[in-house]
Design goal:
- By secondary structure, the protein is an alpha/beta fold.
- The chain has 12 helices and 14 strands.
- The strands form 4 sheets. The protein has a 7-stranded parallel sheet, sandwiched between helices. Strands 7-6-8 form a 3-stranded antiparallel sheet.
- Strand 6 and strand 7 form a beta hairpin.
- Helix 1 runs parallel beside helix 2.
- Bound molecules: guanosine-5'-diphosphate (GDP).
- Guanosine-5'-diphosphate binds next to helix 1.
Length: 301
């Protein structure tokens, strides 16, 4: 089954890890969290997904397992602020990507080299090649996303979300081709506002999804009525998205043909199951169950 998964970094990445065992997978990853740090282009969500697929993800939930911190230590000793932590191997991947970008590669091409270097065999496609940068309006200030998450610990109230540059972004040829030829399209259990929101916000992406022949199935990121850790609940409150299966169905209204969640849902084809993916077995089971719902669906539109 040719499957495309739209994904942020955490929930979506876990589903991706299950999916590679059971289908022919292409991932479309959020790049609105991308940031320039220490002179390199950091691409948190595509990297996190790639490390998950390589079975190299660190227990912290980001970065590479057993990485070392020599560069961060040296920067710190030199008086450089190091609140954004990049391990040495993680930084090496960013250096490679940055070199390619400077030599004129598209972000899609540059990240493909990271995927290959990590021995991952499936495409992890950035949602676009153009730069997009999430900013959070909070306490009268417009704060770049990583700073809001790490320095402010996502604790201050969210008054707005801006996706700078999104109007100039376009789905890449790789994404258009993957969507047009897919048998199933999945929206991973990722933050609907800051992870899936930017992907769907790329002008032309909704049309490409609507034109696809494959059914679209969303997996809810809410377990027991809440996001698991992270700032999902706060961003959903800001965006007026109820943290429930119905909330997810409404957030993706006009796009999804079915929803997988841990609670019953009326009005749209749905599968109720245990959606927690904390073991290899549960990740594979979720992948199989989500694809089985997709198989039963025809496009509504
Ligand atoms: P980020 O880019 O790292 O913020 O990650 P995502 O946007 O991909 O994922 C954040 C969301 O993943 C949170 O809302 C979590 O509730 C959800 N999530 C994390 N683990 C799981 C899981 O095992 N099952 C489900 N259904 N959702 C999960």
């Amino acid at each position: 089954v040719k499957t495309v998964l739209l994904s942020g970094g955490t929930g979506g990445a876990k589903l991706a890890r299950g999916l590679i065992e059971v289908c022919d997978l292409t991932i479309v990853a959020n790049t609105a969290d991308d940031v320039e740090m220490y002179g390199v282009h950091v691409s948190p969500d595509p990297d996190l997904i790639t490390y998950w697929l390589a079975d190299a993800i660190d227990e912290r939930g980001y970065g590479i397992r057993d990485d070392t911190w020599k560069v961060m230590d040296a920067l710190e000793a030199a008086g450089v602020p190091t609140w954004f932590r990049l391990g040495d191997r993680d930084l090496a991947m960013c250096l490679m990507r940055t070199g390619l970008l400077r030599a004129g590669a598209r972000l899609t091409e540059a990240h493909a080299e990271v995927v290959e270097a990590m021995d991952v065999r499936v495409p992890v496609l950035p949602m676009c090649d153009e730069p997009v940068a999430t900013h959070v309006r909070s306490g009268g200030r417009l704060v770049p996303f990583q700073e809001y998450m790490i320095v402010e610990r996502a604790e201050t109230p969210i008054d707005g979300v801006e996706l700078r540059g999104i109007e100039s972004a376009r789905p890449t040829p790789e994404i258009r081709d993957a969507l047009a030829t897919a048998d199933a399209i999945l929206i991973g259990p990722s933050n609907p506002v800051i992870s899936i929101g930017p992907i769907l916000g790329v002008p032309g992406m909704r049309d490409a999804l609507r034109d696809a022949r494959a059914p679209v199935v969303a997996v809810s990121p809410f377990v027991g009525g809440h996001g698991i850790k992270g700032p999902t609940d706060g961003f959903c409150a800001y965006a007026g998205i109820e943290t429930s299966a119905a909330g997810i169905a409404r957030a993706y209204d006009g796009i999804v043909d079915g929803v997988v969640a841990d609670e019953p849902l009326d009005g749209i084809p749905a599968l109720q199951t245990d959606t927690l993916m904390d073991t290899p077995e549960s990740r594979r089971r979720m992948a199989e169950e989500t694809l089985s719902l997709a198989r039963t669906l025809q496009r509504l539109s």
